[in-house]
């Protein structure tokens, strides 16, 4: 999803300001609502996590089927660079654990600009790397796994555009399009070097290399890839094949996905029946073709009907979203034989007819799909809200972000989903303290 332009601009211009009152309210919230998190009879330093594995169309942990109630907080690494902000990292991860959530998707990239992890090709800021180390270590303490994305198709946090700029400074990859990221040999070498550096990074807080750390649920090659200069899809397909093979040559312990939005390409028979509109077939990506590779462990889909349509009302968008999800679950069953993950879903508060209750209906529709899939041992393997924040983070927000506990009905939807999934496939050891009492008293 596109990050807030305002937040990106302010970040590049020298930092962010957070209201003292907002932070005080956040600390008060943690104390009043999550104070028991500090008093659990569990040594968080010794939480044991196992690698998540895939067996056919399902994920497994310790021999049990694993269905995910997850969320996006893209900002974790960037925010953790400043030590004074780290209580917010701890806060959102503790809050996620309290709600029974199991996986958080976040960025493991920031290319060029303010708080860059990769300053230029092969040059890294150790201060920012330690921020990512901290995020991973803090996630493990709270029993939360991470899905880490490796680069952005969009401009926010550098993305493929920054790689093209670097190459242009070296006098190579001169192109009017940033799609040269996908085909230029020099840029491909830049990205492979980045991937290797991240995957083999030894965490200064845990002493564990990223590729050996079960806290990491999966790697995502790129957030929302599009290659519009080649609508045939061949260029992007070649890139995915090369990069996924490269990742697996370094790390065979972790799952890997592409990071797709889920659009069907020109060669797909579904291009005119399942896509939101005609333009979606010309983006250079194809859900089935891109996800079919043996090096890709599961397929990803995003669900943003209000961004894809501008002439439909809420009821029509809700109907499309349900059809969209069902289409991809069927693809997983009939074509891919892999788990399907809805790694971003959200509803904008900038719609003309927006009402907060609409979000709850949209959320419930998505969550119900995953619950029914879990109940039937099918391949709709999980969903991730876009996006969760804590108090005082307005500059990281967009028109989709929420603070879950500010709206009781939304908070209840989230926690009930965690309970429903736990009742079908058991409670993970890392969830036990949070769910054993809450779920017993929750009406589903």
From TrEMBL:
Reaction(s) catalysed by this chain's protein: Random hydrolysis of (1->4)-beta-D-mannosidic linkages in mannans, galactomannans and glucomannans
Molecular functions per Gene Ontology: mannan endo-1,4-beta-mannosidase activity
Keywords: Glycosidase, Hydrolase, Membrane, Secreted, Signal, Transmembrane, Transmembrane helix
Main localization (coarse): secreted
Location of the protein in the cell: Secreted
Entry's EC annotation: 3.2.1.78
Biological process per Gene Ontology, one example term: polysaccharide catabolic process
Database matches in SUPFAM superfamilies: (Trans)glycosidases
Bilayer-crossing regions: 16-34
Cellular component GO terms held in the UniProt record: extracellular region
Residue ranges occupied by any Glycoside hydrolase family domain in the UniProt entry: 50-388
Repeat listed as a keyword: no
Domain of life: Eukaryota
Membrane in keyword set: yes
Class in the EC hierarchy, top level: hydrolase
PANTHER family in UniProt: MANNAN ENDO-1,4-BETA-MANNOSIDASE 2, PTHR31451
Family as reported in the entry's similarity comment: Belongs to the glycosyl hydrolase 5 (cellulase A) family.
Protein name per Swiss-Prot or TrEMBL: mannan endo-1,4-beta-mannosidase
């Amino acid at each position: 999803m596109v990050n807030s332009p305002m937040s990106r601009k302010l970040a590049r211009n020298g930092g962010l300001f957070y209201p003292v009152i907002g932070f005080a309210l956040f600390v008060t919230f943690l104390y009043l609502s999550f104070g028991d998190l500090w008093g659990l009879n569990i040594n968080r330093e010794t939480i044991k996590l196992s690698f998540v594995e895939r067996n056919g169309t399902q994920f497994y942990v310790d021999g049990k089927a694993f269905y995910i109630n997850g969320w996006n907080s893209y900002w974790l690494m960037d925010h953790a660079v400043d030590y004074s902000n780290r209580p917010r990292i701890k806060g959102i991860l503790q809050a996620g654990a309290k709600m029974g959530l199991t996986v958080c998707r976040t960025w493991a990239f920031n290319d060029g600009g303010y708080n860059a992890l990769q300053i230029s090709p092969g040059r890294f800021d150790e201060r920012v790397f330690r921020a990512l180390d901290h995020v991973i270590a803090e996630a493990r303490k709270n029993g939360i796994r991470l899905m880490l994305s490796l680069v952005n198709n969009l401009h926010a946090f550098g993305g493929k555009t920054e790689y093209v700029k670097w190459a242009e400074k070296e006098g190579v990859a001169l192109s009017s399009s940033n799609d040269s990221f996908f085909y230029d040999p020099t840029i491909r070498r830049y990205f492979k070097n980045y991937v290797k550096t991240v995957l083999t990074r030894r965490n200064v807080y845990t002493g564990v290399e990223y590729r050996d750390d079960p806290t990491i649920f999966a790697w995502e090659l790129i957030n929302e890839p599009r290659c519009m200069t080649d609508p045939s899809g061949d260029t992007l397909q070649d890139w995915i094949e090369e990069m996924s093979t490269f990742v697996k040559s370094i790390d065979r312990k972790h799952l890997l996905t592409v990071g797709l939005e889920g659009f069907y390409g020109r060669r797909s028979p579904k291009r005119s029946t399942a896509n939101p509109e005609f333009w979606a077939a010309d983006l250079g990506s194809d859900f089935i073709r891109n996800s079919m590779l043996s090096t890709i462990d599961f397929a990803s889909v995003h669900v943003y009907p209000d961004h894809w349509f501008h002439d439909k009302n809420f009821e029509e968008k809700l109907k499309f979203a349900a059809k969209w999800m069902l289409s991809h679950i069927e693809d997983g069953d009939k074509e891919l034989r892999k788990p399907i993950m809805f790694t971003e879903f959200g509803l904008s508060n900038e719609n003309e007819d927006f009402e907060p209750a609409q979000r709850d209906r949209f959320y419930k529709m998505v969550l119900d799909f995953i619950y029914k899939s879990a109940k039937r041992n099918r391949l709709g393997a999980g969903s991730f809200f876009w996006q969760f924040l804590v108090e005082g983070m307005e500059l990281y927000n967009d028109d989709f972000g929420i603070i879950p506990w500010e709206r009781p009905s939304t908070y209840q939807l989230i926690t009930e989903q965690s309970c429903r999934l736990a009742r079908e496939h058991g409670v993970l050891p890392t969830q036990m303290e949070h769910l054993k009492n809450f779920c017993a008293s929750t009406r589903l």
